[in-house]
Amino acid sequence: MMVPFRRKKTNKQFPVKVCTFDSELEFHLEHRATGRYLFELICRTIGLRETWYFGLQFEDSKGNLSWLKMDKKVQDQSVHMTNGSCMFIFLAKFFPENVAEELVQEVTQHLFFLQIKQAILSMDVYCPPEASVLLASYAVQAKYGDYDEAVCKPGMLISENLLPQRVIDQYQMTPQMWEERIKTWYADHRGMSRDEAEMEYLKIAQDLDMFGVNYFPITNKKNTEVWLGVTALGLNIYNKENKLLPVTTFQWNEILHISFDDRKFVVKTNDSKNPKPVIFYSQKLRINKLILDLCVGNHDLYMKRRKPDTMEIQQMKAQAKEEKQRRQVERNKLTREKQLREAAEREKAAMEQRLMQLQEEMRAANEALHRSEEAAELLAEKNRLAEEEAMLLSHKAQEVEQEINRMRMTARKTEEEKMYLERKTQEAELLTARMMEESRKRALEADKLKNELIHARVAEKEAKEKLLNFLSRTSTESILITPSSSPESPMHEMHSYDLLADGDMEQLSLEIEKERVEYLAKSKQVQNQLKELRSEIEQLKIGENQCPLDDINAEQLRLGETKYSTLKKVKSGSTKARVAFFEELEPEESIV
């Protein structure tokens, strides 16, 4: 009996591309792969552990943006194919209340930094001009490191996309003027690492009114168009023309139940004074599903934050703290080495300058000695000539004296000869006197030249002794530059643990409180810097290019209100204002 041949089933695979703001990942998945499998595969690839903030966004076959469902198969969710591959974007779906306390991993901080930066530059999130300049300086610090005039040349930042186009159009300022203002704050961030600069960026960005808000167009029964904002703290209601200031807000701890029926969305609160549910309508059923998904996720994170940290989060925070301390030690070590190297270079430059100065002094001393030697040789030559002239005059005087003696011997012959001899003798005596006087003058001049020669030789001897002393002194000044040995970095012993003790929790709480106080002080300093920049560029503002959000922001600044004071003010208002846009409908069966 022949057994029929059965073809072995093969699991075909399909390509998937996942884009982040700084990379692109490619995978090949089986047909039965679920959204959770793909999401966990991506998180393992990039080393992400804080996965609860993120999700995968895609464009469906109808052109609508949707979030990938974790429990369904990837191919069952109508993902639009691009060049034969399923395209996804890895984005932050939920946002923290406080980035400094909640974001633990550096990769998490980096992903939030890239997404918020792109949202601000694309003007999806409104940012005032002065805050835009400050955020741009932190972005440059995160990308290029410490400010260096040799590297950061004029015009380098002009080609970078650092400011929203709306801010550039509002002021009569050239790109060079914007670059100078960014560089001014960029130079103040010296010593910040990339993760510190990105965290400072997020700290400032989280205070923006539109940070972490997902807006949806809704209407009430009167068909009044408003905005619904889903945030990490609750639900906000905005006027159609104003996305900055909420009309009313519902925090998650006030909401009892959320449901929808087709296009109708119902929110029940625990307000005893006004127990009526809030009802609004969206444009499509798909929007209601997306709103409910975001509400559930944000509510879960809201409740999770108010509970003690899980073991995983405690371990992540402890590891992040140890890693931060290790990097701080390495950074301090590199800073010390850099300072020692700079000090050695400065000392070397000073020594080289001193060596050049000593060489110049030695050259001047050699020239002075050479001139002294030439002067001594000249005086010696003059003295020799004077001695020769004196000897010649002495020989002539001797000859004249011999002639006088001979004439005296012959003077006795005759009277005439005597008179002649007397006349000749007188003349010879006069000549002898003149010649003796001449000889005496020559002798005095010779003595004078001899004295000058003696003084010149003495000066020459002193100059030689001075040169010898100078050379002996310079030979003792040796230049010795030895590299300073950096101290050994302290060793850090890694301890494994299972649970954090109560003392560790108290110490962690104290450290968090200390960082909060430091952050408040630094935040006050940043606000003062923003106020100075705002007053500086106010004169260059172009009024016709101002958008309604700029006017609203200016009014908030004039009243001294912030994002948090507005929310507090709205929350403390009358509860009747919360349903000012809605009318009561007959309750229908809700679908949770």
Automatic annotation (TrEMBL):
- Where it mainly occurs, coarsely classed, is other
Q: Where in the cell is it found?
A: Cell junction, Adherens junction; Cell membrane; Cell projection, Microvillus; Cell projection, Rhabdomere
This protein's GO CC annotations? adherens junction; apical plasma membrane; cytoskeleton; microvillus; rhabdomere
Q: Name one GO molecular function term.
A: actin binding
A Gene Ontology BP annotation from the UniProt entry:
regulation of developmental process
Domain FERM: residue ranges: 14-306
Origin, by domain of life?
Answer: Eukaryota
- The answer to whether the entry has keyword Coiled coil is yes
Q: How does it sit in the membrane?
A: Peripheral membrane protein
Task: Write down the InterPro entries for this protein, in alphabetical order.
Answer: Band_41_domain (IPR019749), ERM (IPR011174), ERM_C_dom (IPR011259), ERM_FERM_C (IPR041789), ERM_helical (IPR046810), Ez/rad/moesin-like (IPR000798), FERM/acyl-CoA-bd_prot_sf (IPR014352), FERM_2 (IPR035963)
Q: Which UniProt keywords apply?
A: Actin-binding, Cell junction, Cell membrane, Cell projection, Coiled coil, Cytoplasm, Cytoskeleton, Membrane
SMART domains linked to this entry: B41, FERM_C
Q: Which residues bind a 1,2-diacyl-sn-glycero-3-phospho-(1D-myo-inositol)?
A: K69, M70, D71, K72, K289
As recorded in UniProt, coiled-coil segments are: 313-466, 516-543
- PANTHER family annotated for this entry? MERLIN/MOESIN/EZRIN/RADIXIN
The name on file for this protein is Moesin/ezrin/radixin homolog 1
User: From what organism does this protein derive?
Assistant: Anopheles culicifacies
